[in-house]
Amino acid sequence: MRSIVQPESMAPPAANYAHAVLTTEASQLLHTSGVVPIAPDGTVPAELDQQVEVVWANILAILRSAGMSPADVVSVTTYVVHGEDLAVAMAGRDRALGGSLAASTLVTVPALARPEWKMEISVVAAR
After folding, report:
1. Bridge partners, 31 (sequence order)
2. Whether pLDDT at 35 is above 90
3. How far is CA 13 from the centre of its chain?
4. How far apart are CA 5 and CA 24, in angstroms?
5. 3-state DSSP: the chain helix, strand, coil percent, rounded to 5?
6. pLDDT digits (tens, 9 = 90+) for 38-83
7. Cβ contact 35:89 at 8 Å
């Protein structure tokens, strides 16, 4: 149902992601909104590494609620405020996906909707 597309005519991806993921015969598709670093108690951690953990915990909760898992994620779009450590965001993605590859886009932005947010992620999952 899900296969990684890595054309031999292209250089390998720049990090731990797939150039593309082909999904066939999926019976469920999940599209999230931008998931932000608001913890269940309503707080927002100050540091990016903590925000990464909150965002991915929120995404994993959404996946579980939909009867899905990180292995079902086929696409990740990450927005990180310019000047923050992008490696921290990528490492969080890799941990959360547990070795499963997804198509991934990482964009630096000047700001997000709230000044305390340093990152936001949306995912597409298929099962």
Report:
1. 124
2. yes
3. 16
4. 13
5. 25, 30, 45
6. 999 999 999 999 999 999 999 999 999 999 999 999 999 999 999 9
7. no
Rounded CA separation 60/52 (Å): 12
Q: Domain limits of the chain?
A: 2-126
| CATH class assigned to 2-126 | alpha beta
Q: Which helix (H) or strand (E) holds 88?
A: helix 86-97
Q: What are phi and psi of 32, to 5 degrees?
A: -95, 160
Question: Tens digits of per-residue pLDDT, 81-108?
Answer: 999 999 999 999 999 999 999 999 999 9
The reply to whether the predicted model has a pTM over 0.90 is yes
Tokens of residue 71, six digits: 């292995």
DSSP characters over 55-75: HHHHHHHHHHHTT--GGGEEE
Whole-number pLDDT of residue 1: 83
Whether residue 45 contacts residue 61, with contact meaning beta carbons closer than 8 Å, is answered with no
